[in-house]
Specification:
Layout lengths: L1 H21 L4 H18 L8 H4 L2 H21 L8 E6 L4 H13 L3 E7 L2 E6 L6 H15 L1
Antiparallel strand pairs: 1-3, 2-3
Helix pairs in contact: 1-2, 5-6
Length: 150
């Protein structure tokens, strides 16, 4: 029963995503894609605890704001003749289940200047354009939000 509920929830989520991305076009192909994505999602990331969508909503404004600021920062660095970059790898211990680590890594990777490259031994491996930025603080805030959502 838990798997069926997870499948239906994910199918609804993927359906909304399909409609948003395609503007409602190609619905026949969308049905197949949604069914396949839902099945694969449940197989690769089994349902352990349901995600509370309402707890994720407060993350949206923060994500958009950080994406905007990150984009400005990357543009500033790219256009500055001195190219003020200090790229490198940062490992951050994260206390989230595997699905939460994936979600956090995906969120970080969508923000300019950071790219989550994997996890290992309870840590998230992130490539950054500036090792001096306060990535630890940002990860802790988003980690707490994700914990509330699970």
């Amino acid at each position: 029963m838990k798997v069926l509920v997870a499948y239906v929830r994910r199918a609804v989520l993927f359906s909304v995503l399909w409609i948003v991305l395609t503007g409602g076009e190609a619905l026949v192909a969308g049905i197949g894609a949604v069914l396949a994505a839902s099945w694969l999602s449940v197989r690769l990331l089994p349902a352990t605890r349901p995600i509370k969508i309402t707890a994720l909503l407060p993350m949206v404004p923060s994500f958009l704001w950080h994406s905007f600021l990150g984009g400005l920062d990357v543009a500033r660095r790219a256009l500055d003749p001195r190219m003020p970059l200090d790229p490198g790898w940062v490992e951050i211990a994260v206390d989230l289940p595997d699905g939460g680590k994936v979600a956090l890594g995906g969120e970080l990777s969508l923000m300019p200047g950071t790219l989550a490259a994997g996890t290992g031994k309870g840590k998230l491996l992130v490539h950054v354009l500036d090792k001096g930025q306060d990535l630890e603080r940002m990860v802790r805030v988003e980690e707490a939000r994700l914990k509330r959502a699970t």
